[in-house]
C-alpha cells in the first residue's frame, strides 16, 4: 500500500530539499532499497479501506434511524452519530468495554453467526429511567438488572434492531433477531478471541447523559457479502425493481384516490355592471351551442367529450369521445 503524504508533509519536504537539509540522491537510494513492514498476525487486516468507508456510510444511516426511534420512544432529546469504524481482534473489544454493561446478542438472517450491540450502562439506564417516568438521568451506582428491567430493555433494543435492517437494506435484506441480553462480557463468546471484527462506535447523548453504543460485527459473519461493500456495488449496481407486493400495494392506494370530474356546459363573459343587474328570469348566453359536445375534465385536464342527460331522475353525462393524451384546452380570450 502506498503512503500518501499530506500537503503539510509535502511542503516540509520541499523546504528541506531547498535548504539542503536533505539530499535528493540519498532519498533515491533509500527508495531503491527493499523495505520491510512489520505485520502483526494477531491484528489481521480483513477489511480494506473501501470496506470501512462502506460500513461508515451504512451505519451513519443506522445512527439517524436510531436517533429518530429513541427520540420517539423516550420523548426527549436524543443525538446519535458515528464516531469511528475500525477493525480489531474480538478479544481486544471484550477487554475495552466495562465489566458491567448491556450486551444485546443477535443474529441477522440470512447471515450466519452472531453480532453484538453493546450499550454503555450510562446510556442504557438513562433510557430505562426515562421509560419508567424519570428525567432520564444516569444512576450514580450501577447494579445488576432486575427481571422487570431486563424485559423492558429487551423490548426496546429488540425494536432498535429494526433500524439496522433499514440501514442494511441497500446491501442485503437482513432480519435481525435478539437472541439474548447479557451484562457480563466474560460470559459472551460469539467468536474466537483472535477473530477480526468491525467495531462501529456510536456517540450517544440522551438529555444530559452521554455514552457509547458499540456494534460488533465479526468478519466471519459478513464475509459472504464482502463483495457488496465496494464502491462498484454502491455506484454501478443495477437499478432495483419494486417487489410485486409493493407494486400491488401502490396500485391499491392509487385506485382509492379521489379525483374531481367536471362537465362544462360552456362559459361566458359579462361585465361587473351586468353581473350586478342580473335578476330572476335573465338569460346568459354561453359560448357553446347545444349541438356541440360537453368538455369533461378530470382534475384540470380535458379527458372526454360527452353529452348531458338523465339517469333515474338524476343528472348524468354520457361519454362519446376520449381525448388523446397531451391535448390541452385553449380558451378564447
UniProtKB/TrEMBL annotation:
Record's Gene Ontology CC terms? bacterial-type flagellum basal body; plasma membrane
Q: Does the keyword Magnesium apply?
A: no
User: What UniProt keywords are attached to this protein's entry?
Assistant: Bacterial flagellum, Cell membrane, Cell projection, Chemotaxis, Cilium, Flagellar rotation, Flagellum, Membrane
Query: What is the protein's membrane topology class?
Result: Peripheral membrane protein
In the record, biological process GO terms are:
bacterial-type flagellum-dependent swarming motility; positive chemotaxis
- Gene Ontology molecular-function annotations: cytoskeletal motor activity
UniProt similarity note: Belongs to the FliM family.
Q: What is the protein name for this chain?
A: Flagellar motor switch protein FliM
Per the UniProt entry, what species is this protein from, by scientific name?
Cohnella zeiphila
Gene encoding this polypeptide? fliM
Amino acid at each position: 500500500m502506498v503512503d500518501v503524504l499530506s500537503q503539510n508533509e509535502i511542503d516540509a519536504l520541499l523546504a528541506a530539499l531547498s535548504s539542503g537539509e536533505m539530499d535528493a540522491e540519498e532519498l533515491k537510494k533509500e527508495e531503491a532499497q527493499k523495505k520491510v513492514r512489520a505485520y502483526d498476525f494477531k491484528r489481521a487486516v480483513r477489511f480494506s479501506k473501501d470496506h470501512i468507508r462502506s460500513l461508515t456510510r451504512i451505519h451513519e444511516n443506522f445512527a439517524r434511524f436510531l436517533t429518530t426511534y429513541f427520540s420517539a420512544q423516550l420523548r426527549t432529546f436524543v443525538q446519535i452519530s458515528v464516531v469511528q469504524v475500525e477493525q480489531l481482534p474480538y478479544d481486544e473489544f471484550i477487554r475495552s468495554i466495562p465489566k458491567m454493561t448491556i450486551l444485546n446478542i443477535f443474529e441477522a438472517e440470512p447471515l450466519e453467526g452472531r453480532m453484538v450491540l453493546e450499550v454503555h450502562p450510562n446510556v442504557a439506564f438513562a433510557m430505562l429511567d426515562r421509560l419508567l417516568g424519570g428525567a432520564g438521568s444516569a444512576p450514580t451506582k450501577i447494579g445488576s438488572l432486575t427481571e422487570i428491567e431486563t424485559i423492558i430493555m429487551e423490548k426496546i433494543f429488540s425494536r432498535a434492531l429494526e433500524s439496522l435492517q433499514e440501514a442494511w437494506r441497500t446491501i442485503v435484506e437482513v432480519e435481525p433477531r435478539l437472541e439474548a441480553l447479557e451484562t457480563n462480557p466474560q460470559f459472551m463468546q460469539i467468536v474466537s478471541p483472535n477473530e477480526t471484527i468491525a467495531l462501529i462506535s456510536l456517540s450517544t447523548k440522551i438529555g444530559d447523559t452521554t455514552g457509547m453504543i458499540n456494534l460488533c460485527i465479526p468478519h466471519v459473519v459478513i464475509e459472504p457479502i464482502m463483495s457488496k461493500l465496494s464502491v462498484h456495488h454502491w455506484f454501478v449496481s443495477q437499478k432495483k425493481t419494486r417487489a410485486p407486493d409493493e407494486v400491488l400495494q401502490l396500485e391499491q392506494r392509487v385506485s382509492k384516490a379521489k379525483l374531481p370530474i367536471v362537465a362544462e356546459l360552456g362559459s361566458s363573459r359579462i361585465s361587473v355592471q351586468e353581473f350586478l343587474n342580473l335578476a330572476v328570469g335573465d338569460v346568459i348566453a354561453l359560448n357553446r351551442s347545444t349541438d356541440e359536445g360537453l368538455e369533461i375534465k378530470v382534475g384540470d385536464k380535458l379527458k372526454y367529450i360527452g353529452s348531458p342527460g338523465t339517469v333515474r331522475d338524476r343528472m348524468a353525462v354520457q361519454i362519446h369521445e376520449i381525448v388523446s393524451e397531451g391535448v390541452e384546452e385553449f380558451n378564447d380570450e
